[in-house]
Each structure stands twice: as C-alpha cells, then as structure tokens.
Amino acid sequence: MAIGVRVRNHRRGRGWTLDQLSETSGVSRRMLINVEQGSANPSIGTLLKISQALGLVLPALVEPPAPKSVKLTRNGQGAVLWSGSAGGRGVLLSSIRTPDVVEIWDWTFGPKDEHSSAAHSSGTTELLHVLEGTISVSVAGEPHTLSPGDALRFPGDVPHVYKNPSDESARFTMTVFEPVSGHVPPHEHSDE
User: Fold this and answer.
1) Regarding the domain with residue range 79-180, which homologous superfamily does it belong to in the CATH classification?
2) Dihedral Cα 123, 14, 42, 132, nearest 10 deg
3) Domain extent listing, the chain
4) Cis ω on the peptide bond leading into residue 179 (within 30° of 0)?
5) Which of 61, 146, 169, 192 could be 150's S-S partner, Cβ–Cβ 3.0 to 4.6 Å?
6) CA 43, CA 77: separation in Å to the nearest integer?
7) What's the DSSP call for residue 94?
8) Burial class of 133 by CB neighbour count within 10 A (0 to 12, 13 to 18, 19+)
9) How far apart are CA 123 and CA 156, in angstroms?
C-alpha cells in the first residue's frame, strides 16, 4: 500500500491525471489504479516505467523516506520486488541517492527460475556476485555463466536476462549504479 501512496503523491505533485501518467509511462490506467489502491503487486518493470515517467528513481517508490543518515535493513525486511515461478525472490536491501542511485539487491533463484530485464536508463551499470549455485546472465544476447565466487560487471542499459540453468537453488547479490541524467563516469568506459 505504501508504494501506491507514493505513486499517487508523486503523480498528484506533478498535477497529472491517471491518464497522463498512463500515457507517459506506458502502464495501463487500470494497472495504475490497482497500484495506487494497493490491490496489485506490480512487477519491477512496471515500477521502473512508473518511476521513470515521474522522473524518479525506483527506490523513491519502494523505500520509505529515511529520516536519518544511517539506515539499517534487518534480515527479511528488504522490499521483495520480484518473485519467480520456482520460488525465487529479488529483494532490494538498500539504496542511496546522491543524486546518482546505487542499489544493493539479494536475489535467490529456484531451479530454472528466470528474470528478464528491459534496458535501464542510459549509463546504468550492474555488478553481480554469485554466492551459491550457477547463474547465467545474458547481456544484449551474449551469455555468461557464473559459479560461486564469480563476479560480473555489465551495462544495465541494454536488455539482460538472469537465469538459473540448474536443478539447484542459486543466490547472488547485485549492485546497480544508475547515474542521474545518463551521465557515465569516465572509468566506466575503460576495459578494466
């Protein structure tokens, strides 16, 4: 319900109708009504479309405002923003906005779970570290298979897919860097 209140407050703050937000975001009016009323469990993709249309970053919709400079997220208290068909979960643990956005995620994939992600805003970079099992990451159609301890840095501003190709559960952490206005820091262009 808190996400719906934040969406409604930001929409009204812009002076927009539901139809205007629908047209700008590409999310149906019915879905927006359900999100604002708290009767829908929107996908990450839907929340990204809404947040981008409102000129916000995803954490502005899913995390309560932090009144202090220190924010502790206890085990089990992160925002679950994705659930897989085989029991997987994508949990947003923490984020900062400086004005760039940095997010820390904890992902668990059940056997054969898969999550497709549309391209994020220009300049977005993702860092993934496998803790358990095997994860396959396809970045703009190029596959990469990672085992425990492996890490991958890749551009998040192209379509990408995460998949657990095995019959065992897998777990990884992910850090997402999303620069404000698509500004890419110089070191991101290098082949480190």
Assistant:
1) Jelly Rolls (2.60.120.10)
2) 30
3) 2-62, 79-180
4) no
5) 146
6) 19
7) E
8) buried
9) 8
- The residue to which tokens 């300049």 are assigned: 123
Count of Cβ atoms closer than 10 Å to residue 20 Cβ = 13
Q: What is the pLDDT of residues 14-39, one digit of tens each?
A: 889 999 999 999 999 999 999 988 88
pLDDT tens, 101-143? 899 999 999 999 999 998 888 899 999 999 999 999 999 999 9
DSSP strand pairing (170-178 vs 160-163): unpaired
SS3 167: coil
| pTM summary value | 0.66
* AA identity, residue 59: P
Q: At CA 60, angle to CA 56 and CA 64, rounded to 5?
A: 165
State the amino acid at position 126 in one-letter form.
Answer: E
125 Cα distance to chain centroid = 12
CATH class of 2-62: mainly alpha
